[in-house]
Amino acid sequence: MDAPNLFVRMLILVILYECGLKSGVHASTIEQIGSLVEGPLENQSSISLSFKGLSGPIPPELGSLINLDYSLVLAYNNLSGPIPPELGSLTNLIYLDLSNNKLSGPIPPELGSLTNLRDLDLTYNRLSGPIPRELGSLTNLTGLHLASSGLSGPIPPELGSLTNLADLDISFNDLSGPVPPELGSLTNLPGFSIIYTNVSGPIPPELGSLTNLTYVDLRSNNFSGPIPPELGSLINLAGLYLSGNKLSRPIPPELGSLINLADLYLHRNDLSGPIPPELGSLTNLTDFLTNLTSLDLSHNNLSGPIPPEIGSLTKLTSLDLSHNNFFGPIPPELNNLTSLTELKISGNNLSGPIPPSFCRFYRSSFSPGNLELVCNNCGYSSLCGAVPPSSWSPSPPSSTSPPPPVGPIVGAVAAGAASLLAVAILGY
């Protein structure tokens, strides 16, 4: 073949390739899908193509596949562009999973027409705009997964109509405004989690109606006002995580009814005030909370002495009362906490000797702060807070006690120590 003919053929191939790039992107996506299923695309009742390396936009033509009546799963690919509103025509669809892609734009309100849908998963995308109120029409939904999707705006109260929901995850978005009280109708939820968003306002007392809850996780938001006493009705609760908010006022004594509570996170709020007198009559409070394994009341404005009743929480492995205004001695009853592996009481106004059993903890457990705490019985100089950091005993390596994924773990209160629970936990 002579050089001119070879050049012409190569030029034709380049032109055809360029035309394909400019006009065939959409077609290539539908072709990718068609090549990965058995039989004609229009005959499929289910399409499940996770981890297939699909790229490009989701073809709107998928909305015309009238036989698609079970599932459309395109998760864990490289799909981009908007979610086609045409998918709202797949009214018999039961499962729709478009998670872990690069989809953008708003969630089309047309998805509210998928009234047979039981599970909708759009997590880990690059969406924008609000959660459509039309999703409240999906009354057969048992799972709604919208976490880490770039969504913003308020939580629509219409989601309270999804009474069959057993899994709701809308965390790690830029949501705003209050949590609608209508969500108190979601009585089938085993857990209620809205973390790392910008929701604000009070914690709705209606959450106290969700008696099947085993955990409530509202960490790292902008909640303000008091902790609702209605949360004391959640007798199946094993974890209550309210840290990193702007909660204030007293901690309700009703929390002493949470007999199954193992973790209580109240740190990094603005809890303060006196110990509620009601706690003095809760003679069984300590017994109620003996399942606590970690208690974190750090970074509040709690004051008063550390209640000796904390020594009854013999299952505690972690106790953090640091950065408050506690004063007085460390109660000798805390020697009973033989399971403790982590102790933090620095940043207070404690005085007197360190209990002998606490000498096993590093100097950083007690300092800075606590200028009148006597440490010489542990081999430290006489006043814990009077020694410059350079002369402290070494702190443990960070790897020995890594922080929890989304916030420090705090155990529950031994409110039997109506005192502590009140003082400490009752961070007013």
From TrEMBL:
Signal peptide start-end: 1-27
UniProt xrefs under Gene3D superfamilies: Ribonuclease Inhibitor (3.80.10.10)
Domain of life, source organism: Eukaryota
Pfam families in UniProt: LRR_1 (PF00560), LRR_4 (PF12799), LRR_8 (PF13855)
Protein keywords: Leucine-rich repeat, Repeat, Signal
InterPro entries: Leu-rich_rpt, Leu-rich_rpt_4, Leu-rich_rpt_typical-subtyp, LRR_dom_sf
Signal recorded as keyword: yes
Protein name: L domain-like protein
Organism from which the protein derives: Klebsormidium nitens
